[in-house]
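Q: What does the assembly look like in three dimensions?
Context provided by user:
Components: two
Sequences:
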Amino acid sequence: MKKIVRQPATVPSVSQRRFFGHGIPGVQLDDLAGKLIVVEGADGSGRSSQIAALVNWLETLGHATVQVGLKRSTLVSEELEKAQNGNILSRTTLSLFYATDFADQLENTILPALRAGFIVLADRYIYTLMARDLVRGMDAAWLKNLYGMALKPDAVFYLEVPPEELVQRNLSKNATLDYWESGMDLGLSRDVFDSFLKYQTAMQATFRRLQRSYGFTIVNGSRAVDEVTASLQKKISAVLAAK
Amino acid sequence: MKTFAQLGFPGRLIAVEGLDGSGKSTQIYLLKRWLEAEGIKVYFSEWNSSELVKSATSKGKKRELLTPTTFSLIHATDFADRYERHLLPLLRAGYVVLCDRYIFTAFARDVTRGCPPDWVRGNYNFAALPDLTFFFKADLEVSLNRILDGRPKLKFFEAGMDLRLSPDPYESFRIFQGRILEQYLAMSKEFVFTLMDANERIETQQSIARKIVSERIDLDEFRRRSPLPLPPPVQPTTAAAGLEEDSGV
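A: Here is the predicted structure of the complete assembly.
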């Protein structure tokens, strides 16, 4: 019979918290006892599988988790979906709509969960939102001010997979390439395959640039799923143990 | 920040600002009627009226889901949609665009709600300044009474109930409007508001407004080349009756 290991769950230390800029009015940062962990990456980079594996692992260790992601707010997710399908919104509008979606989740899910001591796993965060807009030529200073409302995460992992590999993974999963993930609105190429490669290359370069200003961790996502999970677990353990 | 004229746009933008009940909607409606009759290419845009964003805004308001941050962002989204899809192309095409409320409404309201002023202003910095901004300044009591006279049912955000200023919606509305007025007055100089005495009679105000518009904008440049067919008769809207139709509060 397998022996039950009753290892006590370790209580993570409380982080020194900061907003990127002005933040959300009236939030007591010292009350946010939980941890915010972000996984970034293109569709097909293995984000969802990794988050599922991390949730499983963290809960086994006795940590409570909450998941958030883009376009999941109560407030505007439906309208945002509609707008995107019709491709009728201009750039600033779409950008602000996404920012609204993000703020709604930040205030109604992320902050309360952190207050309650949960580990919040974010399936993409402001970095994807900024990268998409930067690739579309929007003003970096404007974006920086806008997302000054966001809370600095405890850890950010960017799963990097070469565009050629992303094509293979997306096609094997969906047999098609997504309009937005191919950046078709940018008119890079009328051919969706070419457009996807060009767009994802540009996104990767932008992420690399963002990495230099925001200092997140770039993770090689081309490896086997288990290997990536193991490396994320190692890094997250260090975050949870850190003073 | 520059005005549309300074940026070389052929069109001109005129905005009206003021508290609910200041009579600004009545005045801009009458300006529109006048400009149309003069054969000017004119377009009217109202705060919080973008179709797509509106459904999210009204859901947020009805279910009281909005915080100062999301309240601010969702109105910015609405504004951006109207700005990029209507205002910019029309101004490129040489229209006189009339706006019932512009970015100053957000500056005043969102800051009253507790949003950082720099953040709000930064979010709206994609927008150029109006070529002419009328600020309708009525005594606070006059504006309040115009709205509150009929003891209407004040909506939650309209009354500023989210700020917990008072459990009584009417009292809350009074305090909230008073604070917004302070914010407006504080930026009046910076954004060169043209102050209008909103305690005056409607006709007096309109004569003054028309005079200022014709002095500041060479209207002959904005005439349609061919005369428009006569518009269908327009029933005075609620705005013309002196009531606010601003669901954006």
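Follow-up: The longest helix of chain A spans residues 91-115.
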